[in-house]
């Protein structure tokens, strides 16, 4: 069952990062929706694994679908989805996942049928240019480092909170973990799309079990609050340093969101 | 032998490559030695896996929940030592320390946590050779990234 979970984890990431890589807003948005469905599949597979008295982990063995055109990414994603079909369990959940995947495959075929969708992919070109605006090199460097640090952090938080949520019987904890997972999904989406705009889209590195198997929740929360405080400082510094008003406002917005994360985490202490 | 080693100062193409595709990242199942360096204040860690053969370091991998500096240094360091003997690895630490002297205190802490995890993995091998049953060898860091950051803010 862990193998199925691992495959779904990989498919979630492949769909999510395909969404980040593609510039067309309609395709991007549809793929993002499908990636969220894949994340729920992963969550349900995890619950079923635990109900069966087994365990799962966050090991993965995948490479990012780095391609030059939209069609190449979509084709690669289609192949991945088809290859994963044999892994799903023969039960109600397995059937649900298969029908969702078949619908996604139909959507991908629809995209491939329209030649005008086949645009160039710029998410991996390493250009590090922010739209058509002029940012100083030091600002671009600061933004690059921030995005690498924070995209990993958000991915890490999604998986840690989901791991703890799957194992708690406490309703308050369950709800707070859900809020934090939802918030981190939004942040990861924002940062992933920004990395793609800069041409530096990359998968967050794999989580080691020392990171997500939390033995002391209180210590984890205290450390987590300190990390949120540090993220706030980074957002503020970036917002102050970046001359682009739109970007600066975005980092202020994220900064205020981190404030509330701290409140949510304090509820659990 | 280390003249061309570029340390992560500024974002050059090599550093970006290590950020995008960290080398030797992950774990080795049933590694000869597993070492962990732990910063108890921040709970930041580096875990280092080392496989040895008659010539020296056959393979290494590392993983961390730390910052990108730690990832870049871990990626560079593992890349330097694989396929070399233990003496070379020891010299690599010294040489990297020299170069890190030009960098921030925070980056030095990041480098130290990587080197300490490597040393812990060797200690784990030694302990197992002596017959000890030790899953991994853990070394606690003296300097914390958190205190270095606070000192920096206080300046």
Distance between the termini of chain A: 33 Å
Q: How would you spell out the order of helices and strands of chain B?
A: HEEEHHHEH
Largest β sheet strand count, sense and barrel closure of chain B: 4 strands, mixed
CATH structural architecture of the largest domain in chain A: Up-down Bundle
Largest interface: A-B, 21 and 24 residues
Unreliable spans of chain A are none
CATH architecture of chain B: Alpha-Beta Complex
Number of helices of chain A: 9
CATH class of the largest domain in chain A: Mainly Alpha
Oligomerization category of the chains in this entry: heterodimer
Tell me the radius of gyration of chain B.
15 Å
How many domains comprise the coordinates of chain A? 2
Any idea what the shape of chain B is?
Answer: globular
Q: Might you state the CATH topology name of the largest domain in chain A?
A: Ferritin
Gross geometry of chain A: flat
Number of E-state strands of chain A? 0
- Backbone structural class of chain A: mainly alpha
CATH topology of chain B: Sufe protein. Chain: A
CATH homologous superfamily (4th level) name of the largest domain in chain A = Ferritin, core subunit, four-helix bundle
Tally of separate domains of chain B: 1
Task: Give me the side-by-side strand order of the main sheet of chain B.
Answer: 3-2-1-4
């Amino acid at each position: 069952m862990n193998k199925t979970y691992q495959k779904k984890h990989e498919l979630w990431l492949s769909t999510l990062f395909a969404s980040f890589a593609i510039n067309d807003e309609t395709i991007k948005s549809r793929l993002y929706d499908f990636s969220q469905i894949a994340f729920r599949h992963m969550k349900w597979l995890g619950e079923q694994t635990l109900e069966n008295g087994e365990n799962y982990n966050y090991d993965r063995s995948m490479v990012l679908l780095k391609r030059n055109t939209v069609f190449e990414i979509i084709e690669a994603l289609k192949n991945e989805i088809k290859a994963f079909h044999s892994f799903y369990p023969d039960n109600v959940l397995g059937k649900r996942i298969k029908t969702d995947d078949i619908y996604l495959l139909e959507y991908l075929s629809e995209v491939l049928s329209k030649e005008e969708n086949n645009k160039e992919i710029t998410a991996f070109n390493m250009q590090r240019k922010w739209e058509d605006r002029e940012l100083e090199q030091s600002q671009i460097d600061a933004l690059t480092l921030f995005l690498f640090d924070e995209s990993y952090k958000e991915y890490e938080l999604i998986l840690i909170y989901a791991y703890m949520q799957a194992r708690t019987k406490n309703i308050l904890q369950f709800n707070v973990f859900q809020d934090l997972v939802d918030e981190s999904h939004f942040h990861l989406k924002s940062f992933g799309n920004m990395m793609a705009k800069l041409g530096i889209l990359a998968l967050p590195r794999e989580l080691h079990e020392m990171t997500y198997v939390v033995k002391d929740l209180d210590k984890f929360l205290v450390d987590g609050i300190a990390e949120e405080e540090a993220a706030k400082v980074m957002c503020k510094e970036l917002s102050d340093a970046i001359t682009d008003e739109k970007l600066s406002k975005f980092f202020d917005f994220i900064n205020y969101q981190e404030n509330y994360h701290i409140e949510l985490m304090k509820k659990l202490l | 032998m280390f003249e061309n080693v570029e340390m992560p100062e500024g974002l050059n193409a090599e550093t970006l490559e290590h950020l995008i595709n960290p080398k030797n990242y992950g774990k080795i199942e049933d590694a000869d030695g597993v070492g962990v360096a732990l910063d108890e204040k921040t709970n930041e860690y580096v875990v280092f896996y080392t496989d040895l053969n008659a010539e020296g370091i056959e393979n290494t991998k590392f993983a961390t929940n730390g910052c990108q500096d730690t990832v870049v240094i871990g990626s560079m360091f593992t890349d330097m030592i694989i396929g070399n003997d233990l003496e070379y690895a020891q010299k690599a630490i010294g040489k990297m320390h020299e170069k890190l002297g030009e960098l921030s205190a925070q980056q030095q802490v990041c480098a130290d946590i990587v080197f300490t995890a490597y040393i812990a993995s060797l200690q784990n091998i030694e302990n197992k050779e002596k017959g000890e049953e030790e899953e991994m060898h853990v070394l606690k860091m003296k300097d914390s990234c958190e205190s270095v950051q606070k000192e920096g803010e206080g300046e």
